[in-house]
Structure formats: C-alpha cells, structure tokens
Please model this.
Amino acid sequence: MERTVAQSSTPQGRYTLLPSRYSSEDILFCIDVDTESLVEMKVTGPNGRPITRLDSIKQAILLFINAKLSINPDHRFAFATLTKSASWLRKEFSSEVESAMAALRLLSADSSSGHADLTQLFKIAYHEAKKSRAQNRILRVFLIYCRSSIRPQHQWPVTNQKLFTFDVVYLHDKPGPENCPQKVYDALVDALEHVTEYEGYIFESGQGLSRVLFRHMCILLSHPQQRCLQDLIDIPKSLTKKSPTADSAPGEENPAASSQ
Amino acid sequence: MAIDTVPPLIAAQLNYLLSHSPLPIKVEQMWSGSKNHGLLDRFTLVIPFCLDYIRWDVIYNALYPLAAPDIIFGPEDESFRPYYAAGEEGDLKSPKNSMSDWNCKDPTRLLSLILELRELYMTYQRKRVGEVEDERLKFELSTIVSREGIEMYMSSGIEKTEEVKFALPLLGVDINKMVTGCPWRQKQKIFLQVIFPVGRKYMSTPSAPRLKLVASPELKALFSIEDFRLPSWLDGMCMAEYLPILEGLLQSQIVDAVSSIDVRRKFIVALAPLFGRPVEADPVFCRKAAFLTSSGVFTFLVHFSLPLQFPKQQPGLMLQSSQHFNPSGAPVKSPVITEFPWSPRWESSEMAERFFDYLVEECLNFKKYCNESLLQQR
Model:
C-alpha cells in the first residue's frame, strides 16, 4: 500500500524530530447528521438535561479547534455534513474560532438517511487538497460517523494520487442482534486505507461517554506528517509518580523512563 | 448612483500587480474620479522604499479605458519628472517607456510601470543625495556606492531638517541555506537603516547617525533583531569602518542561532520517552511542542514553548484541559507557568525528568483550578 510514512521515527519506533516538511493543516470536518446523531450520551448535562451525540460532537470539535490553534494558530477549518451524501456547511477554510462556532450553531440533525455514500466527500476533499497544496498546506478529512447499522459506501477509484489524510471517529450503540457496528467499523477502516495519504487514525466508542470522545479527539490532534502507526500510539501517557526503588537514596537518579 | 466596482481592465492590472509584485506593495484607498459613474478608477499605492514607504496615487479614467494612468507622486517630490527628457518640446527622439507604449488590455502593464518608475525614483534620489553640499556625506556616499542593493532617500521640507537615509543590505550569506528544512519561500534579508543629518556647516566631530536594523518578518522564528545590540558608533567613525564590525557580530550571532536549534530539538526529543510522542512539534526551528498526558481519567495537553535564548532562558509551560470548558466552549487553559525547577546546566534528559516530576504534582493543582473555574460559571 502506497502510504506516505511520517519522518519522525527510527526503525525501532523511537521518537526523533528530524528537520522535515511541516505544513499547516486545512481540516475538513464532515459530521454525520443522520437521526442517529440524536442518540443520547450516557452522562447528562447541567440540570440533568440529556446530551445528544451531536451536542458532544460539537463540543469535541470546539475542543479540537481550540487546542489545535493553541499549538499552531495557522491551522484552518471548514465544515461539511453527511446525510445520504456529503454537502458543504461552511466552505471557506478559516482559523477563526468565532467562525467555527458560527458554523457549528448551524449544525442540526436531519431525518433518517437510509444509506451513506462517501464518494462526494472524497471528491470535495480531492479538489480542496489541490488548493491546499498550492499554498504549502495539507488537507485532512475528519469524518464523525454515528450510524450503527448502515455501512458507508463509496465509488472512489483506486489511485496513486492520495492527496489528503482521512481520520474517523465512530460513535455507535452497543452491539446487538438489531445492528452491526463491527461491520460498519470494518467498512470505515477499508475506506480509510483506500484514500488516506498519511497514516489515518480511526477511533470508535459505544460507551456513550463524552470524555472518551474528547480523549480520542485529543489523540487526533496528531499532525499527519509526524504520526506513528496507529498500533504504536503511546499517548496519553500517565503522569504517575515513579515508585522509588528499594535502594535509592535522595538525589539518586531513577533510570526508569516512565511508569504506567 | 454609486456602483462601487472597479472597471475590469483596471482590476486585472491591479490584481496582477498585487499578486506578482516582488515587493510587498499595498493599496491604501480607492475612490472614483467622478460622481456620475461611481466606478473606482483611482487608488493610492503604498510602495516600500528605503525601509520606509512612499505613496503614489494612480489615476485612471473609467471613461477613457484605453489611456495610460497618470501617476501623482508625493508632495516632496515635485522635481521628480520621469519620462521628461531635457528639451522635450518637439523632441522627436523621446525615449520609449511604459507610458508611451501603453496597452490597457495587458494585465502586466501596471506592475511594469510602477517598478520602472521606482527604479527611476531611486536614480532621482541618488542624484539628490549626491548633490548635497556636505563633505562628510559625500565621503560616506563614496565608500558605499558600490554596494549592491542600496537605496537612499533625501528628506527635506520647510519644517524638517534635511536628512539623508540609507538602506544597506547586510550579510551576503544566504540565511535560508543555513537552516535545514527551511520553509521560507523568500530569502530572508537584514538591512541597516542609517540616517545622517545634513550639515552644511563644518563640524569638528560630526554627530553619529541614527541606526536601525530591519529584517524580513519570518526571521524571528530563528533570530530576534530586536534583541540584537548594535555596536556603538564611535566618534569620528564612518560607515566603511562600522559596517564590517556590525556584519561580523551579526554573522556570529546568526551562526549561534542556527546551532541553538539543535539544542532545542534535543530537549523535545528527551521529553518523548516520559511524555509520549508529541501530538505536534515544530521540526525546523524547534520552538514548540505539545504533549497529551493523563492523570487518572483527567486527560490534558502540555504545551512547551522554547524561547530563542533557551536554555539560558527557561521554556514556557501551559496546560490545557480536555474536559473542562469555559462558557464559550473553549477548553480551560492554565496561565503560563514559570515557577518550576530549572537550570540551564542540566542535561536534556534531566530537564525532562524534572518536568515530569514537577507535572505529576502540578497537574493535581491544575485539575483543581479547572474544577473551580467550572464552579465559578454556575
């Protein structure tokens, strides 16, 4: 599989930071607004009000954007929605948080869509990626998908021209006789491997916990040009006190790298 | 009836100028030459010159689209008359220039005209400076006139004292090539601006000129012009003596700045075994790195920012929650933390370990800070 490998690991997977291409990102969020986005999360909001998946998704996107801009204020964001197919919500890429907030306010759930076709999304991304590259930027498509029984399809051709990175967050119901989230997940993985330029990441959760979603969003902050393979992700690292060894005296260095 | 649009031929020429100009020329204002049509056919261009700006008004006429525009120069430059050869009345051999050979349909014309006029303006200013009756200035001019890329400017006026301003490009070395993986699309340049008062009277010790360093803006990722202390201009010095001293100092500081990139790089790499792979780090100048860590179920980001004087100057540290949000939905951030154990003499691995130990404790305070800020919102 022709995949552009990030330049920041030794063969043993140890982290290095060699001088390399470091492009600002254009990130296109594509949010699934099928009725399943209105499924309630496990935790309730203040005053016991229920929180839907879409509410959590909006909050998670704001978290992501704010964090990304704290790291590098040059990253930009645009928005699309997914019903039967993808369509623009806010087309212009912008690095203004206010602009993202305004776009997210427009986000609302649609009726049940039946099927999900990603072809248009990939077409849009391909076209936008060419514009990004002309400005020395890289394009990333960030799909947030909510349907537990509908496998997304696409008719994107096999091509060596992979111009954008593809990340997925999948929120679903617990597996049962009436649904097939595992099959949906596998279809998302296939689509990811089919189109992504740099290593793409996919995270799923059926727990309905916002903080799990937020945690995944933070891992997805990873810059595509600096990623390791998903199997080797070692973050977040836990900040726990290293237990003192039996023989250590004050001032003696503990050679252990970290404890988890 | 104001239409408020720019006629297409004019727009094409102006857009071409703005996107293709080798210098950062800007449009300051646009207006219409006539109340009747309201089309915007006049504008002011702000053009970099001698590390400052000159303003020229470009006057098209929307009713006569085939004609070349008029250019109105600044009030100090009444004697600047490009394209007026001496004895031009009835002179059949007036030189062909961008104005006489105007093609309104060619979008490149305005830019060529402006660049040509700017060259002529440079020659005009050189002549004015050369004519100044100041022996010291004449001498200074003679020592630098062979340097490439100099611009000079003579400012005068009833209220101002006469001054001559020089903009001198420094350092023949290509800084871009010194930085591995350099992302700068244009060559970074450093200039010295020197302003001499014009003194027609003889003075036993001529006063020192005003000096200022100016650099292209992207250079600040590597080197701070503001923090660079200009060597003193000693009594009786001249530019021919001062410039080599300045350039020597600048060169060695830039070489130091380039090697300090790897000092910062080493520190970021030393953090990875303890803090995990950073979610993003600057691989060329190594000024920033962000890590994702957790303490129990509390997940948060640790942002390091490394100053140019690292490790003499300590890093900036900031924490950002993934689970606590302020009323506008932004994740709660700590203020920039400065009170942590620090010594520039530690090895990078020890610096990393000390930060780890510090943050094991400090993240509990941060969690408390986040929870308190949520309570304050209720």
Summary: Chain A has five helices and nine strands. Helices of chain A lie at 53-71, 97-105, 119-134, 181-195, 210-219. The beta strands of chain A are 24-32, 40-44, 50-52, 76-82, 86-94, 137-145, 164-171, 202-205, 237-238.
